[in-house]
Specification:
Largest sheet: 6 strands, parallel
Number of domains: 2
Oligomer: single chain
Low-confidence stretches: none
Order of helices and strands: EHEHEHEHHEHHEHHEEHHHHEHEEHH
Number of strands: 11
CATH topology of the largest domain: Rossmann fold
Mean pLDDT: 96
Helix content: 25-40%
CATH architecture of the largest domain: 3-Layer(aba) Sandwich
Radius of gyration: 25 Å
Length: 393
């Protein structure tokens, strides 16, 4: 079936997570993504770890369905190949070091002079101007700069997110901006320049804490896995030693929780706990009451009571449990993809569309598609052999 981005060609000078995660979303929708890598070593994310049968977990996650072309862009013959590709491409994505692309002659003005229909997307830590423009930025640094660490962790210690939340935010805003630019180009015939900042992407995700701290009010306190401002909302220990995650959103649910889960209906109108701000202020006292009841129940029995009272809840799973999660299995969200080390499992992208299937092709080896791409550009076997000898590819 026709996919939304079939016929769209994306060229990417990408490494790490933000840009690769963006372009993988484009590939999922059918775009041809040509990933330009350094000869020999490739994207340095290939060596972050070797947990996926010898491949990097980061790289496998963010790079399926792409073609790998190795080019030493310091060599004129290799740079000419890149420019030839860009002349007929639809999208260019890069997240090189600040200013590096422009110094190489790959700034958006030069590229759109070469190809006016080209959508150019630059992803950086802080954006292309301002006093932080030239600062290097990694995911944890942006989590710190954006105040994310101020609201994540325990009262005693700040904690980073367990995944690359700043990279993911930037990658998703780059993705949505590129889709918007392609829609706009369909009306105007002209490409756009997109400047995506990791700081601005994560700052948007910090909207609730920012407004909570409006006009220099105190920020939400760090509460570990519990909600910073709503209680009870977080993990609670059952009598068998397992934790159950539960969440109450309103006073109707609080009354049902007291009546049907705690079996203490009078607690709902107790003046210490009859409004969420009071419950949040006295969370240690209320936690003691709740876990005293849960101590006589297994986690499964707690969940049964919560379900009966229609109180939202979840098991506190290990990350590896996602591979066998019954809901993902029932909805057939896992597929098999190829890779340099053989078949691997992969999750389908979120969102089931009844008009097309997502593209789920292999994770590429370093330079796996170099010769095929070069031949399509008219390079002969002798040309390719010379470029290999010179280290250009």
């Amino acid at each position: 079936m026709l996919r939304p981005l079939d016929g769209i060609t994306v060229v990417s000078l990408e490494h790490a997570i933000a840009a690769p995660f963006c372009t993988r979303q484009l590939a999922d929708l059918g775009a041809r993504v040509i990933k330009v890598e350094r000869p020999g070593s490739g994207d340095f994310a290939r060596d972050y770890d070797h947990r996926v049968q010898g491949l990097s977990s980061h790289f496998v996650w963010a790079n399926r369905s792409k073609e790998s072309l190795t080019l030493d862009l310091k060599q004129p013959e290799a740079f000419a190949v890149l420019m030839e590709l860009l002349k007929d491409s639809d999208v260019f994505v890069q997240n090189l070091a600040p200013g590096a692309a422009a110094r190489m002659g790959l700034g958006h003005a030069a590229l759109q002079a070469l190809n006016p229909r080209l959508v150019c997307c630059d992803i950086s830590g802080y954006g292309e101007d301002g006093p932080y423009r030239d600062r290097k930025a990694y995911d944890l640094l942006i989590q710190s700069e954006a105040g994310f660490l101020d609201v994540t962790g325990t009262p005693e210690e700040r904690c980073k997110a367990g995944n690359s939340v700043a990279d993911i935010a930037a990658g998703m805003y780059a993705y949505s901006n590129i889709l918007s630019a392609l829609l706009l180009r369909g009306r105007t015939g002209v490409g756009s320049h997109i400047d995506v900042s990791m700081l601005e992407a994560l700052a948007e995700w910090m909207g609730f804490p920012m407004y909570y701290a409006y006009d220099d009010q105190p920020a939400p306190t760090r509460q570990g896995a519990s909600h910073a401002t709503i209680f009870p909302y977080g993990p609670f220990r059952a009598g068998d030693g397992q934790d159950v995650m539960l969440g109450l959103q309103n006073e109707r649910e609080w009354r049902a929780f007291c009546d049907q889960v705690l079996m203490q209906p009078a607690l709902a109108s107790d003046p210490r706990f009859d409004l969420n701000p009071k419950r949040s202020e006295r969370r240690a006292e209320l936690r003691g009451i709740i876990e005293a009841v849960f101590a006589g129940l297994s986690a499964q029995e707690v969940v049964a009571r919560l379900d009966s009272a229609q109180i939202a809840n979840a098991y506190v799973n290990r990350v590896g449990d996602l591979w066998t999660h019954p809901q993902l299995a029932a909805r057939e969200r896992l597929r098999t993809i190829g890779s340099p080390v053989g078949a691997l499992k992969a999750l389908l992208p979120p969102g089931a569309n009844d008009c097309f299937d997502y593209r789920m092709d292999a994770v590429p080896g370093i330079g796996e598609h170099s010769e095929a791409i070069l031949r399509c550009l008219g390079r002969t076997d002798d040309d390719i052999a010379r470029m290999r000898t010179n280290g250009a590819v």
